[in-house]
UniProtKB/TrEMBL annotation, chain A:
InterPro entries attached to this UniProt entry: Bact_response_regulator, CheC-like_sf, CheX-like_dom, CheY-like_superfamily, Sig_transdc_resp-reg_receiver
Keyword DNA-binding attached: yes
Name used for this protein in its record: DNA-binding NarL/FixJ family response regulator
Keyword Phosphoprotein applies: yes
Domain Response regulatory residue range list: 5-120
UniProtKB/TrEMBL annotation, chain B:
One of the Pfam families matching this protein, by short name: CheX
Keywords: Chemotaxis, Membrane, Transmembrane, Transmembrane helix
Lineage of producing organism: Bacteria, Bacillati, Bacillota, Negativicutes, Selenomonadales
Cell cycle among keywords: no
Protein name as it appears in the record: Chemotaxis protein CheX
Origin species: Pectinatus brassicae
């Protein structure tokens, strides 16, 4: 098997030498070393390293900027931050950018090898979430719509990728999901279905569009919250939380979610159809 | 109006945009709106969760969004607001909002995280209802491209 290729981005020749020596001793192939953003991209494109180690403090561009540029160049680049700082905000920043792992300086060889190993191995937690995510959101929708609006729910088009752009039916709730992985929940229905469901829940016609909208927003919030807590119960490490919904209405907009692949199912109820789309994205960081 | 809510987001625009091909970010106006407003063209939705929560939206007319994306791609001609342009605008929003979280941490609001962006496109006027009572609407001019920034955080 070919040796794992590593590129080192660090402004200190001393640190670069230390990391390169440890890596070579461990059987890794050090394909390049640099302290500049432009050169990092150039070396990356020429040598296609499996992993990049990245210092934070550098003279022209910091490690976050270089990481952003590398991930913009190739979203699949695997970056391990090496820094003496280890605080919550550094961790959050790294996670938001999409950095894959972290080692604290001075870098201990065996810890670096372990992190490289983890960064390159398949992420089972993420795979499980992708496998069970939509199913759990379907369950939450089914339970809550049945309970609140007293209608049976069945599904069609289960697990199909959302057409991009997706054309909304008129009333769209968009919920952000935050946690070990981030994601998006889209619930979409026609104004007529929304009115019918509001009437079923309220046992009277809704007084205004605002009342219908508030009801749909609440329903989406409950479905998102319930589904995430069901997923968290199965796997605590997910730590999923939802944002309250943004509601888009009054027209038929086109929707895209360029950084997330949305899978969907369509719920059939006595009151009309409800589109349910959900997708997750990796932004996880391994901290050792 | 709580400037502590707006300033980190504006600071993020001013810090990130020059890194992606837009040199000048000017604030042209600021207004307080309710939780409901209308839009046409392109609207990017990014949720914020943490000790403050809510949503940041970035709106542009489609023509302007095309111009913005073109600048991000070093002047590449764009006949349509296509998949590549949609991805560029989403990436811009993602970078700005991630940076806004960092700016918030500098004023001791830490531990914020953002959702992946969702982009809406509509030629006719549509309505948005966001989950906080007030929206701060800021008119920006980014290298002569008008951009509307909606900050609904609490």
């Amino acid at each position: 098997m070919a040796a794992i290729k590593v590129m080192i981005v660090d402004d200190s020749p001393f640190s670069r030498t230390l990391i390169a020596d440890s890596l070579r001793d461990g059987g890794y192939d050090v394909v390049g070393e640099t302290d500049s953003l432009e050169e990092a991209i150039d070396i990356y494109n020429k040598t296609k390293p499996d992993v990049i180690t990245m210092d934070i403090a550098m003279p022209d561009h910091d490690g976050f900027e270089v990481s952003r540029a590398l991930l913009h160049n190739d979203p699949n680049a695997k970056i391990i931050l090496s820094s003496s700082m280890k605080d919550e905000e550094t961790e959050m920043e790294a996670k938001r950018i999409g950095i894959s792992g972290y080692v604290q300086k001075p870098v201990e060889a065996n810890i670096l090898f372990q992190v490289i190993d983890k960064v390159l191995s398949p992420d089972n937690l993420y795979q499980d979430l992708l496998n069970s995510g939509l199913e759990t959101f379907k369950e939450a929708l089914s339970q809550n719509v049945t309970r609140m609006a007293k209608t049976p729910v069945s599904f069609k088009d289960i697990g199909a990728a959302m057409d991009e752009p997706y054309t909304s039916s008129g009333v769209t709730s968009v919920i952000g999901i935050i946690g070990q992985y981030t994601g998006t929940l889209i619930m979409d229905l026609s104004a007529e279905t929304a009115d019918n469901i509001a009437q079923a829940i309220l046992h009277r016609p809704p007084k205004s569009n605002d009342e219908t909208l508030a009801m749909v927003s609440e329903l989406a919030n409950i479905i998102g919250g319930r589904a995430c807590s069901m997923l968290n119960m199965k796997e605590k490490a997910l730590g999923l939380r939802v944002s309250p919904p943004s509601m888009f209405h009054g027209n038929s907009a086109e929707l895209v979610s360029p950084s997330v692949k949305i899978e969907h199912a369509v719920a059939k109820t006595d009151y009309g159809e409800i589109f349910l789309g959900v997708g997750f994205k990796k932004g996880s960081t391994l901290w050792m | 109006m709580d400037v502590n809510i707006i300033n980190p987001v504006l600071a993020a625009f001013k810090e990130v945009l020059p890194q992606i091909g837009i040199q000048n970010v000017e604030k042209k106006g600021i207004a307080l709106s309710s939780s409901v407003f209308t839009y046409t063209g392109v609207l990017l939705n990014i949720a914020v969760v943490g000790s403050i929560k809510g949503v940041i939206l970035i709106g542009m007319e489609e023509e302007h969004a095309k111009k913005f994306a073109s600048k991000m791609m070093m002047g590449m001609e764009l006949a349509e607001f296509d998949e590549l342009a949609q991805s560029a605008i989403s990436e811009m929003g993602n970078m700005v909002c991630a940076n806004a979280c960092t700016q918030f941490s500098k004023v001791d609001v830490s531990g914020l995280d953002i959702s992946p962006p969702t982009l809406l496109m509509s030629k006719e006027s549509g309505k948005v209802t966001i989950p906080v009572p007030k929206t701060v609407v800021i008119d920006l001019l980014c290298d002569d491209i008008p951009v509307k920034l909606y900050v609904g955080l609490m």
